[in-house]
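Appendix B. Raw example, untouched.
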Amino acid sequence: MNQCHRARSGFLMGPAPVVYNFFRQFKSLVDQFKPNRVYVVLEGRPTARYELLPEYKATRKVEKDDPKYEDLQNFFRQKDIIVDLLSTKFPVSVVRHPTSECDDTIANLIERSSTAVPWTVVSNDSDFTQLLNNNSHVSTWNTKKKQ
């Protein structure tokens, strides 16, 4: 879902620019990779990490009096539209584990699949390079770097 966050930049006019930018990029990726199956992985709440380290991702919180708050609420509203459209109108599997982050859920999906099935993980998160060490059937695509 970091593609959803990435869609916050780009075309910024109209009532739902994040939705527009996301699907424009989504179509481009599907055209480029021509996948047999697409998983869109949503973020869960990593409760175990928060229990071990309460300050985990604490810098990402935005208070109501922060000028960024309204923009963030607008983003989440549009993210919900994207998830709803993906879930109901597209032939994709929307996956979310309630207590795992996206990268852990994606790694779990890959580890449980056959090594005969090639995977391309589309993300700007460099953590996914770890998957390349143990899985010759996995590649990553960073849309920001276009590599």
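End of appendix B.
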